Structure formats: structure tokens, C-alpha cells
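Deliverable D4.2, example record:
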Amino acid sequence: MQTTELGRTGEQVSVLALGAMQMGNATDEADSVRILDRYLEVGGSFIDTADCYEWWARRGSRGGESEELLGRWMRAGGRRDRVFLATKGSALPRSSPQLWDADGTPDWDLARRTFAGAGAQTLRDALDGSLRRLGTDHVDLYYIHVDDRNTPLEETLETLAGFVRAGKVRHLGWSNVRTWRLERIRQLCERNGWPLPVAVQQQHTYLRPRGGVDNVSIVGAEQLDYLREHDDQTLVAYSPILKGVYDDAAKRGGHWAMEAYAGPDSDARIRALAEVAAETGVTPNQLVLAWLLHQREPRVLPLIGPRTPQQFEDALPALDVKLTPEQLARLDTAGA
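Output generated by the structure prediction step:
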């Protein structure tokens, strides 16, 4: 697997990041270890988790299962030095019995209203908890998981700068964030000498959000333009294949992941995707990953979250796809 520079840090990370969100819950320990071992075997290095993963998997959970599993895995094989390790804070909701309905379904509306946020003491406690569960004295990348507009940015950024000075964090990132907030963060960092976040983790895929969609987590044209102009921040694209819907028309038809995208523009892009996938001998899901890996303005680092070892193996052919300029042009210009 090739590597790419994270921002302009000089830090080389694998071009495909591995998300560990489901590890320890939907993906049991044995399969998680198989995926993690295989990822290292093929040259991967960039592993992503969060302190809140996966509180919603079972009633009463406070998350942390993914971090704990990664900690066990790294200790078991002395693997910490082989991993560029990212985790996140700010998105764990306040503990409440009301977080789950009677049938055990999580109440996401309540969760979003009660996120922990990015206050100074909240972040200190969150990072220390993450380091304890991961069994390490530092993480390579620490994200604000959900942008917190109720806490002064100065407080959050000064706290993060303290983490870097203390050696607990090497690089910073931000997720689920508006473009104007990225610019405000940039200005404050420059003014105060604080370290700039070098990774921006957003939902990004081949399809474009339909007109009228207003989603802080999905990359739009303005944010792509901003990141083209500021290549000191790398776009880390989560949910790049939208739960695998590209390979299955029936699944696309009723899947919640398509709600922000469904429409004539997406229909046209899916047709172009199917044509180029047939030409290159890969699946549409694999082609989406390959297309993202070919992006240069801005550079895109896809973050995959396989639930099973087979899903991980299914993603790997994307690494070997070479798209011609003509194929890239067809994919880029497709749309209604």
C-alpha cells in the first residue's frame, strides 16, 4: 500500500485508513484481529477510532469498546510503533436511561442534543480515558469529533495545543464541521501560535448531495474548494461507499444512506460508475474507492469501516486500479 503526506506535516500515512468503529461490538474480537492483522500485512498504518464507539450498540454502554480492543491488539504484538493511531473526543452523549427506547433502540435525537462537547475539562478527561483504554502515552491524531459551537473556540484550541505541548497528541483534526468554522479555526491558530488541525474528517463519496441538503457532516462544493486552497489540511473521507450501496441497486432504493443523495444527478453518476467499473473489471464499490484515491485537488484519504474480514478483502482491489484520464473525466463530469 502506498503512503501519502498528512497535510504538510511530513508525516506519511497509508492511503487507505481503517476505521475501527464496529470493532468490539458488531465485529467480534476474533474477526477484528483478523482485519487488523491483515491491514498491517498489506501495508496499512492509519487506524481510526473514537471514545464513543459504540455506546449505541447496547443499553447502558458508555462506549470505549473499540479503543479497549485496539489497546489489547497493540499490546499483544508490540504493534504500537507500526500504527498511526487516531481517536476522537466530544461526541459521547451524557449518560441517561432515556438514551435508549424500550426496545433498546438508541435515541439519536437526544444523543445529539447532549454530546459531551469540547470544553477544556471535558476534553482532558476524554483524552486521558482514551489513552488509558488504548494503553499508550500518546495518540498520533486527535480529532474534535463533533464541532461544538457552544464552547468558545479559543478554549478548545488552547486545550488542544496543551495536549500537543504535553506530548499526549502529535497532530490535531476536526470532524463534522462547517467550512466557515475551519477558517475561523485557522485564523485563531495563526493569531495565537496554536497548532492547526491537519486532518478534516467528513462524509465524502462519489455521489454529490442533492440540492437543498444541509448536512454539516457531508462535504459540499464550498468545502472542497476551501480544501483545494488549503492543502495543509487533508480530507479524510468517512463512509466512502455509503454502506456498500453502490453494488446493489435494491439496497440503494431504500437505504437511509441514500437519503442525502437520491435524485437525477446521482442516477447519472451511478450509470457512469457502472460503465467504468465494467471496463476496469472491478465492482462499483471498489471503483468509488479508486476514484477517491485518484483525487488530487484536494487530496482525499478514504476511511473504510469493514464489519467483516471479507468486506475488508473486498476493498483491497481498489488499491490497484489505474484510471485513465478519459475515465476520470467521464466520472468527474457525470451528472444531471
